[in-house]
Amino acid sequence: MDNLINIFEMSPRDGLQNEKNFISTNDKIKFINKLSFCGFKKIETSSFVSPKWVPQLSDARDVFRGISRMKGVKYTALTPNEKGFDNAVIAKVDEVAIFTAASETFNKKNTNCDIQTSLRRFKPIMNKAKKNKLPVRGYISCVSHCPYENYVDPKKVALIANELIKMGCYEVSLGDTTGKGNAEQTFKVIKECLQFTSPKNLAGHFHDTYQNALDNIKVCLENGMRTFDSSVGGLGGCPYSPGAKGNVATEKVNKLVLSMGYKTNLDSSKINECGDIAKKLKTTGSYS
Ligand code: HMG
Ligand code: MG
Known about the structure:
By secondary structure, the protein is an alpha/beta fold. The protein has one domain: Aldolase class I (TIM Barrel, Alpha-Beta Barrel). The protein contains eleven helices and ten strands. An eight-stranded parallel beta sheet has the order 1-10-9-8-5-4-3-2. Helix 2 packs across helix 3. It binds 3-hydroxy-3-methylglutaryl-coenzyme A and magnesium ion. 3-hydroxy-3-methylglutaryl-coenzyme A (HMG) binds next to helix 4, helix 5 and strand 5.
């Protein structure tokens, strides 16, 4: 349905990966269980990345083991390499995501390799995902701006998006990691990507550091995109993007798109409650 907006909840992964305090496994599980009642079809639950790189999510396996899975909700995770993918399969993840960037320096800081090497690393993941019938989403970071290189060429973003789609990703999420992308830049990125793919295969992932996210989402909507990543309470950031704030708040995206006549099938009061819990996790490091 063209007026249905898919809001992909990111807070347990993109949110909690950036918290200074380690949120206990039990509190993560309680938070995810509460999110499961909001109406989301997908919750990015954790990451199977190196615990040395992101210690905050080193308990991914226990989180997946502990949550109560709600029928109709997919619990997803990031997998940067085969080791991460194998661990995700053991944890019975419903969908995985691979991630690269449109900036060489950011990619090196985030995954310790250049962009081409990261794309090569994804090939065995895609083969195994096919065998396991697991859908794979692709992320591109720094689509509008890089914290180390500044300018990012939208054509480069589109070429990488095309590579990810060609290797079998069902969707590519375009990440404005620093939140510096404005509506004009976002339009350029989408326009280039649409040379290769349909808006149905693209998602918007906006960090709201400079309050540009809602304007950027409007540009995406005008260009046919219907999937957006967000975090309740605006939780999040990226440990390898200094100063970047959280994903745009789910509450804000929901309110915006409803006011524009779209549907989300989310329970507004439940997402507000989860937003309060997210803020509490952020300020006190604990759920209760
Ligand atoms: P590396 O150090 O080059 O990896 O890291 P390696 O293959 O040389 O292995 C080194 C050690 O890590 C070994 O352990 C491996 O076993 C272990 P040791 O022998 O030293 O004890 N290891 C792993 N352990 C558990 N799970 C794994 C794994 N892989 C290796 N999967 C690597 C390369 C990619 C692993 C590392 O750089 C990494 O984990 N990076 C992840 C960084 C990250 O999670 N960043 C945040 C998510 S991306 C993001 O937030 C952006 C996004 O939101 C969009 C946007 O906003 O832009 C998606
Ligand atoms: Mg992000």
